[in-house]
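Everyone, carefully examine this protein record:
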Amino acid sequence: MIKIDGLTTENVNEATKHIDQMDSLGIVTLINKEDKKVALAVEKELPVIAEAVDAIAERFGAGGRIIYCGAGTSGRMGTLDSVELLPTYSVSPDQVLSLLAGGESAMYQAVEGAEDSRELAVEDLKNVNLTEKDCVIGIAASGRTPYTLAALEYANEHGALTVSITCNRDSEMAAVAQISIAPVVGPEVISGSTRMKAGTAQKMIANMISTAVMVRLGKVYQNYMVHVQPTNEKLVVRACRMISQITGADTDTAEKTLREAGMLQTGCSLPEAARALDETDGRVRDAIEAAGRS
């Protein structure tokens, strides 16, 4: 049986013991006060987060995958991040995966006993054909969830990169992972409700890692998400605005360029733009420079 005594995330928060006697404004004010501690805890982990970004970018750029593993709230944080990367950066669903203990149905309803199954984690990683090129990011507030711990151990055995995101120092996952990220956010407003501060920290770090990896791989130009898939009206408008803001072109010209998919800054055609992007592995800044020289 997992021991949770002594875990920071399971301690009682003395500052919120009277929350059940407060009015609504008092409750949300207290929650907000505690939430302010999350960003400061994450800030202390920035050097190791950057280390993870470098290691993941190297493998991902060489054809490896990002595979999030977790259970419950922690697992859902990985799923949210993986799903959002697909439309935002045109990443293939085969490149970023999320393994949630209990499967897809666990996204909406807890699956009894799934997070306690080490065997299930191994089976899930076997099913996605884990290789030494891949990056496995295990997420668990406690740092002791059997499913996630077993996923990291199995990934190590197969030469994959392993990263843990926990909210307790010196956890079992931290000892197993090659790179350990552990923001200590302190006891929760509601004792043991790690969907709160711990969940927020996990979401912040997952967003930080994936965004930084995409930036490092050239999927961002200036601070624009130029690899976004314009699959609805809002995203089409956003894409046109990006073109206008980057190049100074008027709206009509931006819309025409988007439809024809040329490269407005260099005046090159669709085939020339496609060739420049292919030669630079999709790095827009490098592609613009390459097209400008040709």
